[in-house]
Amino acid sequence: MAKVLIVLYPDPEAGHPPAYARDSLPVIERYPNGQTLPTPSAIDFTPGELLGSVSGGLGLVKWLESLGHDVVVTDSKDGADSVLDRELADADVVISQPFWPAYLTPERLAKAEKLQIAITAGIGSDHVDLPAAIEKGITVAEVTYCNSISVAEHTVMQVLALVRDYIPQYQIVVDGGWNIADAVTRSYDLEGMDVGVFAAGRIGRAVLERLAPFDVRLHYTDRYRLPAEVEETLGLTFHEDIQSLVKNVDVLTVHAPLTAETHGLLDDELLSTMRRGSYIVNPARGAIADQDAIVRALESGQLAGYAGDVWYPQPAPADHPWRTMPHHGMTPHTSGTTLTAQARYAAGTREILENFLSGQPIRPEYLIVEGGAYAGTGAHSYAKKD
Ligand code: NDP
Fold it and tell me: What's the CA gap between 155 and 53, in Å, rounded?
């Protein structure tokens, strides 16, 4: 029998379950590239329920316990006496979501003597030290595609919110005001702007497709070019590198994984080459940006706005400068954990667990690390390009 340690974000302050706004979710048959949705043998939850917090347990607890496995669900993940640290030593499986990441550092992995698999219920496994997982032969898997469209929609929302300056206008209404001049002093149309996408993978490409109808001029860079017919249909201008991309756009959106190559990429030097008054929306990983450089660029006016929803560390401390910097539209890492996305990644996590527990292969598209090497999606996205 296995010990499964599940690290999830805390329940709603008013308790679990919350009152739901809707009664059902739309049924999606396939992901845009044809990949099938998760195929577990069964699910023990109703799609649309809050599954990502402790009491939701990703809909896995009843099923795992019925098979005799030992299950620990906790939100306590930081600090020396966290439940995560206490329970890790004899855990066979650790599951966490990027929104509330169980940081599996080399030190923690060294103590996790029985750990066989770390599952990301979501996308982005940079909270696991992948070289250390490779060295220790630990499998790392995530639910590829589960929330890519969720993040793409959030990106479009944040682009519009920044360019139109929506958030201060909403606040004027809430505060009982009506000064239209104040409300529009920083408000522009997106139409006609140059919009650049850094990394056109599943999310980046979905953002390009969703922004094309706004009659913007679309640009992108990636390690590999999109097919010529996609470039033609969407009217894309390809740039060889991010340096060329950022110089030529008004709005930059960021969708690369966090790797040694992308860490700290948006620094003072790169930001200084952008058009004055550019906007950045980065729902990929906070650490792709130099935290203080973003604050400086907003304060000087070099950037007109910054939004995204991934921070480092998470949860962000109360005095994190991104909470109070001017002209930001940050959210607390929610883009990929809509109730819609939760249903998909809970089912995908169960599919991965069913395969792992029965000794069956895990789909290559879910694999990041296996057998002491990058594998599947990980071999493509996390390994360095030759
Ligand atoms: P994909 O793997 O589909 O796309 C990532 C893209 O990044 C690929 O096209 C890859 O290139 C490209 N890339 C990798 N490194 C570089 C580099 N150094 N320079 C340029 N391009 C690079 O992943 P997704 O689109 O599904 O997700 C992207 C990221 O978004 C995730 O890694 C995760 O960090 C983040 N994310 C955030 C979520 C949230 O809730 N905020 C939820 C889901 C994901 P190629 O394939 O051509 O080699």
Answer: 23
Residue 36 lies in a domain: yes
Is 154 close to ligand 1, i.e. is its CB under 6 Å away? no
Mean pLDDT by 10 residues, the chain (386 residues): 98 98 96 96 98 98 98 95 97 98 97 98 97 98 98 98 98 98 98 98 98 98 97 98 98 96 98 98 98 98 98 95 98 98 98 98 98 96 67
- Please check whether residue 346 lies inside any domain of the structure: yes
Q: Is 225 in the pocket of ligand 1 (CB under 6 A)?
A: no
The pLDDT value given to residue 16? 98
H-only helix segments in the chain: 61-66, 83-88, 106-111, 130-136, 148-164, 166-174, 180-184, 202-211, 228-234, 242-247, 268-272, 291-300, 339-357, 376-381
Res 386: pLDDT: 42
Q: Mutate which of 31, 156, 209, 222 to test ligand 1's pocket (most atoms within 8 Å of Cβ)?
A: 222
Q: Which of 223, 288, 281 is nearest to 257 (CA)?
A: 288
Q: What is the pLDDT of residues 66-98, one digit of tens each?
A: 999 999 999 999 987 999 999 999 999 999 999
What is the structure's pLDDT at 79? 87
SS3 content of the chain, % helix, strand, coil (to 5): 35, 15, 50
Q: Is 285 in the pocket of ligand 1 (CB under 6 A)?
A: yes
Residue 80: the pLDDT is 79
Tokens of 245: 């991309």
- Answer whether residue 200 is part of any domain: yes
CB contact at 8 A, 270 and 242: yes
Residues 347 and 228 both lie in one domain:
no
Distance CA 6, CA 93 (A): 8
Same domain, 231 and 216: yes
Nearest atom in ligand 1 to 126's CA:
34
Q: How far is the CA of 258 from the centre of ligand 1 (A)?
A: 8
CA dist 259 and 58 (Å) reads 28
Output the residue whose Cα is nearest ligand 1's atom 27.
Answer: 203
Domain-embedded: residue 385: no
**What pLDDT, on a 0 to 100 scale, did the predictor assign at position 83?**
98
Indicate if 208 and 159 belong to the same structural domain. yes
Q: Which ligand 1 atom sits closest to the C-alpha of 335? A: 40
- Shared domain for 365 and 321, answered yes or no, is no
